Amino acid sequence: MSNKVHISRKAESRAAFGFLSPFFILFGIFGLLPIIFTFYVSFYNWDLLGTQEWVGLDNYINLVQDPQFYQSLGNTLSIFVLSSFPQLIAALLLAVVLNAKTLKLRTFWRAVILFPFITSTVAVALVFGAMFADNGGMMNWALAFLGVGPIPWHADPLAGQFVIAMMVNWRWTGYNTLIFLAALQAIPHELYEAAEMDGASKISQFFNITVPQIRPTIFFTVVTSTIGGLQIFAEPYMFSGTGYSGGSDGQFRTMTLFLFDQAFAQLRLGYSSAIAVGLFLIIAIIAGFNFYISKKLVKADK
Question: Helix (H) and strand (E) counts for the chain?
Answer without folding.
Answer: 16, 2
